[in-house]
UniProtKB/TrEMBL annotation:
Highest taxon above the source species: Bacteria
Protein name stated in the entry: Uncharacterized protein
Length: 191
């Protein structure tokens, strides 16, 4: 049995404004009573996080399943992913063709993943990277590719909730509003 996480990634936050946006998002979550302002030992992989607040149930669909953990806010350049498993394919931002990494029998197809893996490392180091599409041969910004099961997101701000029930869509809209109407994506997975 693992720990379940849901991370709301702000796709429009930059290195420069991530901290300000994080504070605004946290402020909204605290005002709504969904998390507490103070920190405690309640998240995996970090010394402390914000525990659930008195109105945590407003955020989730299943209101009788109390969250098991708290909120950690990531404000560094981060390759967000879904934890276990792997991306099966990526979709080119130009031709919408799929770069497929595995056969139907889940055997890795040689040479397809490598340029993506290299680009992810480059982005992690520098904040910019591109991949040449194996189908149309055009170069696409790494962050413009889309992934099977939304496996990856590349960004500077993520609200990582540990062991909460699935979020209510209205909650996700509210948090996006608190982030200035930025584009957000919800990543969920297990560790
Ligand atoms: Zn293409």
């Amino acid at each position: 049995m693992g720990n379940y996480f849901q991370t709301v990634v702000d796709l429009d936050a930059t290195h420069a404004d991530a901290h300000t946006l994080a504070a605004g998002g946290l402020d909204w979550l605290v005002k709504e009573g969904m998390v507490r302002a103070e920190l405690s030992d309640c998240v995996l992989g970090a010394p402390s996080g914000h525990p659930p607040g008195p109105s945590w149930a407003k955020a989730v669909e299943q209101k009788d399943w109390e969250p098991g953990g708290g909120l950690r806010i990531e404000t560094d350049r981060t390759v967000f992913n879904c934890g276990q498993g792997e991306a099966r394919f990526a979709v080119c931002p130009h031709c919408a063709g799929r770069a497929v990494f595995f056969t139907d029998r889940l055997e890795e197809i040689e040479g397809v993943w490598e340029p993506f893996g290299a680009a992810i490392n480059d982005w992690s180091d520098t904040g910019s990277a591109a991949v040449v599409c194996p189908l149309c041969r055009r170069s696409g910004d790494l962050t413009a590719w889309t992934w099977s099961d939304h496996f990856f997101a590349f960004g500077y701000l993520g609200f990582e909730f540990w062991d909460w029930p699935d979020f209510d869509p209205e909650f996700l809209e509210g948090l996006a509003r608190a982030l200035g109407g930025h584009r957000t994506v919800l990543m969920a997975g297990k560790l």
